[in-house]
Amino acid sequence: MNSYERRCRLLLPAYPSRYRQARGEELIGTLLDLAEPERTWPTLRDSLDVVRGGLALRLRERPPLWHWAMYRLLQRRLPYAYRWWARDDLLGKWYLARQYLAFLLLTSPLWTFITPGGLLWGDLAIASVLVLMVGFLSRRTQRRYQLSRHEFDHEGTPVHP
To answer: 3-class DSSP state for residue 152?
Structure first.
């Protein structure tokens, strides 16, 4: 692997991991075929095109805000069109942290209406710690349950009837 190929591989994290596994070598091969001899860096245009394509793919697969909020807060099943996004989210490295931050983001406006006099930081801190503890203790069960609801087995491979 030469330096040009190594630098092209630095662009691949713009794409979701399942896309990189399926088509990453094809993308690298295309960049290597387009490269001029003796180049050590991909051109700025090629780099921006790869990153733009990866971000566009990620945004295209993302569920709408309403479905995302119901998925995060109430553990609802996403529509079938977004099941691969759910798989990537559930198997991702920071799933529990994303779940916790989404809980804080989506429920913090409610605390101003629930507590008299506005937001009480102590109440919010206690609720946050409780949610984090429950989430941490049941993370494997939650992942397996959500994966099965989106028609995947516990490893993330599709289940065919």
So the answer is: strand
